[in-house]
Design goal:
The structure is a homodimer.
Chain A: E1 4-11, H1 21-36, E2 45-49, H2 53-56, H3 62-69, E3 77-81, H4 86-99, E4 105-112, H5 119-127, H6 142-157, H7 161-175, H8 189-193, E5 197-199, E6 202-203, E7 213-221, H9 222-225, E8 232-241, H10 256-269, E9 278-280, H11 286-295, H12 304-310, H13 326-330, H14 334-350, E10 363-370, E11 375-382
Parallel strand pairs in A: 2-3, 2-4, 9-10
Antiparallel strand pairs in A: 1-7, 1-8, 4-7, 5-6, 8-11, 10-11
Helix pairs in contact in A: 1-3, 4-14, 7-11, 7-12, 11-12
């Protein structure tokens, strides 16, 4: 298997856009190709993530549409959908294509448009990632899913609402430093704690927003990457799944798929959590960040809330988590999220993250979660 | 890259089912694993195709659901969606995973449920595979797309409605021999020609039906396959795309993506169309079969209609096409179709196709088309 590098990244501003998801992807992809100094004509395949396009845009078959809008209609293209982890799944399969020698230059990305439909509708469409027969029929939507996770974590570890709120405060503080972030204003613990309840104990500011946006990156084989300006190497990319139904899981305070994907990724890369300098992880709700920091081995089980409270995950802390602002402040255009996390870690490892730079970062990790904690992707990156 | 084999196949009966797509897939997958004499616990990854689950079942994230229902929730799983070619795309990426050495045993398949919604709704949902901004808004649905293809082919090559009807008659004759087919009755040219117009010149019997169903197959590395009862080798698997919009295509009488995917597959396998003994191809409409036989190089451009009329593509003819009955008679549960075509060719190459066996078949080809001819997959198979 050959080494694979990311040689170009591009992300749209996240937030409300009056453009189709294919157009949002085109902006991100053009930026990624320009960043890689690579003409579109050299792209040999497109790996594309999109989730609710059928619901919000009446658009399936978004792979060839994304290729057409870029003017490279003849490259093989596939749409990947694994709920919020879709473009991270696309990335993992693209890495296999380049590593196996099948292609030398592959474009990866994703996009989503959801702010063109009412919030009640997008909430319902997102819930399609949970089981239609047994969960949706009970009225379960994702704030409810993560409220159950939060309750389990509070019960088992004594995690507090203040600790969860600290995640939101930290990610908003980071988001101020990211020109592409949807929310660029600091908030206080009090802002979070006094915000309206969405699904007890989760309040409005414990939840990431709905967002439109696109993200893209250019993958290259080692030979091609050696001629690139700033290659960042893919050290590992691993996926794991878990039972679809919440009711089939034994302990909602953990995400076993995160633990398995992380273990596989660390094994592939031959490093451990102590070797990671910067992390972009899936904070769809504040509790999700706390549980993920534990599942990734950054902190002991039960210590994720304490770490958030003590600032260990802040820029300047022991292990900065979500310097981009995370899903909470940067935004969460679901089909773009996994690719956008990778773009941030690559930018950090290049040392080009400006005001939000993690000084001296050499190894980075991205973590994306799909659905009822049923799909997790973890990838590791390093610079020479 | 390692050699890869199909060592087990399973297909549900196609038609109307009162089960979810995940349950339909589970039936097919259990059959495929039993056929491979392989316990589910040895499966290392699931590659899954599903298209309109969001629309007809309010179900996205169908990969982990399919794995859960099989009792293998922890294997990495991804849903692929490239319109009607979805499970063929899943197959191609799964072949890469095994060929690259990442896994030894991979389950591939797909399922779809559409007969639980009114025909007008499924027609609209299928149209989501065409462009939402420029085509759906004009009322274009797939019978209209292929009526345009038929008109272009008739104009350029003199293809007749009787030649198209001959495809339907042949595929219905084949379907009678397939216990899993949705339609098992012979029809006459007159049945087709006198059936109601759907989109002139296409009539009801020029169109494949809506179908529920599932299909699955077990892929194995060469080492594992050598211990299997009847391995059938994957000689090639190639994808090609084309402009999304019909209006961007130069000549609707051809499908350039078919021509490119076929050329790539023949090159990979080191064989040509003259070496193929049996073909399962994408006859969503009768004209699609005619155009595909030309694009795959089985007949010269313009000769596909003549070949159909003269019986060259019948069982017993020069090159039997769609011995299963094809999408026309076997049915077209879109997410399952690509996998089901592969199951048929594997069954043929094993010499186990019973009354519809192509005698002495050693090399087989499958061809699946997605959307407005914008995605095509072609794979080649051979027995020792």
């Amino acid at each position: 298997m050959r080494r694979v590098a990311v040689i170009g990244v591009g992300v749209t501003k996240f937030g409300r856009h009056e453009r189709t998801s294919a157009e949002l992807f085109a902006e991100a992809a053009a930026d990624a190709l320009a960043d890689a100094e690579m003409p579109a004509s050299r792209v040999q395949a497109l790996y594309y993530g999109n989730v609710v396009g059928g619901e919000t845009e009446k658009q399936l078959h978004t792979g060839p549409q994304a290729a057409s809008v870029l003017g490279i209609p003849t490259v093989p293209t596939t749409r990947f959908e694994t709920a919020c982890a879709s473009s991270h799944a696309a990335f993992r399969h693209a890495v296999m294509e380049v590593a196996s020698g099948a292609s030398d230059v592959v474009l990866v990305g994703g996009a989503e448009r959801v702010l063109n439909v009412p919030t009640a509708d997008s909430t319902e469409y997102f819930a399609y990632a949970s089981d239609a027969s047994w969960e949706q029929t009970l009225g379960l939507t994702f704030p409810g899913v993560f409220a159950l996770v939060a309750r389990a974590h509070m019960h088992k570890h004594g995690t507090t609402e203040e600790q969860m709120a600290a995640v939101a405060v930290k990610n908003h503080r980071h988001g101020v430093l990211n020109p592409k972030a949807q929310f660029r204003k600091e908030i206080t613990l009090e802002t979070v704690l006094s915000s309206p309840k969405v699904a007890d104990p989760l309040k409005l500011y414990d939840c990431c927003p709905f967002s439109d946006g696109g993200a893209a990156l250019v993958l290259a084989s080692e030979d091609v990457a050696r001629t690139a300006r700033r290659p960042i190497w893919v050290l590992a990319s691993a996926a794991a799944s878990d039972w679809m139904l919440l009711g089939d899981k034994r302990d909602l305070s953990r995400v076993p798929a995160t633990e398995r994907a992380a273990a596989a990724a660390y094994r592939q890369a031959g490093i451990g959590p102590q070797d990671v300098d910067v992390v972009e992880l899936h904070d769809c709700f504040t509790i999700a960040e706390i549980v993920a920091t534990e599942g990734l081995g950054l902190f002991e089980p039960g210590a994720g809330g304490i770490a958030a409270e003590k600032g260990w995950t802040s820029l300047g802390g022991k292990i900065p988590v979500n310097p981009s602002g995370g899903l909470k402040a940067k935004g969460h255009p679901i089909g773009a999220t996994g690719a956008a996390q990778i773009c941030e870690v690559v930018t950090q490892l290049r040392g080009e993250a400006g005001a939000r730079q993690v000084e001296g970062a050499r190894r980075g990790l991205t973590h994306t979660l799909g659905g009822n904690t049923a799909t997790v992707l973890v990838s590791l990156f390093g610079r020479d």
